[in-house]
Amino acid sequence: MSLIVKICGLSTPETLAAALEAGADMVGFVFFPPSPRHIDLGAAERLGRQAKGRALKVALSVDADDALLANSIEALRPDLLQLHGKETTARVRDIKQKFGLPVMKAVPVETAADLAPLPGYAAVADRILFDARAPKEATRPGGLGAAFDWRLLENFKCGVPFMVSGGLHADNVAEAVRVTRAGGVDVSSGVESAPGVKDIEMIRAFIRAARMADRNLREASPHVG
Q1: Is position 183 within any domain?
Q2: What's the predicted TM-score (pTM) here?
Q3: Active-site residue identified among 63, 65, 131, 214
Q4: 5, 16, 84, 155: which has the fewest C-beta neighbours closer than 10 Å?
Q5: Is there a catalytic annotation at residue 158?
Q6: How does pLDDT run along the chain (225 residues), one tens digit per residue?
Q7: For the domain that residue 66 is a member of, what is the CATH number?
């Protein structure tokens, strides 16, 4: 399979259009008020219609209750739920059963010990997203522009498809793909001119760089994918 490229935290028709036209496979929308990328339900409905059939729509939430999840699902009509908080394996399983949608669980990484919960999450989630662990004083768990040591995922077997995020941008995505052999990459702050402000040219550059990285890796290792 080709590398999956996800642009997350989109909030305007113009930047969503840029991501879609550049060939993003997934487009993410944030339902978490502390985030500068948070969108309301009206915007979610409009952006969801714009993206329908052109990329997989991902609804990102952080330790959301069932009411928030239900409202965001009704507005966006997502293809995938991204759980980016401290959701337990039981909560992930319950959300899947209740809402009938695939789930991607974000797992914060700083040291090898952070990979210990993986078997439990891999048993209930459809996909894993590895992100840099946020500092203790952070007000949100992701979108902070920080990277983790990708070597922790070298030759790592997850059991389900996985993606990497955290501090990615056009200049380092090739190295992240080369080291981790991840099936997908996810960017938010790395395509912004300011927190929550997506930059159209940075979106295009990131997707180009990711596609080139995938192509180069396949040419170097024809058995990949």
Answers
A1: yes
A2: 0.92
A3: 131
A4: 155
A5: no
A6: 799 999 999 999 999 999 999 999 999 999 999 999 999 999 999 999 999 999 999 999 999 999 999 999 999 999 999 999 999 999 999 999 999 999 999 999 999 999 999 999 999 999 999 999 875 554 444 445 678 999 999 988 888 999 999 999 999 999 999 999 999 999 999 999 999 999 999 999 999 999 999 999 888 876 554
A7: 3.20.20.70
The pair of three-digit structure tokens given for residue 171, joined into one six-digit string: 């200049």
Q: Which two tokens stand for residue 102?
A: 């695939």
Distance CA 135, CA 84 (A): 15
In a domain? residue 161: yes
- The domain tally of the chain equals 1
Q: Would you say residue 225 lies in a domain?
A: no
Location of structure tokens 């210990």: 116
Structural domain that includes position 181: 4-220
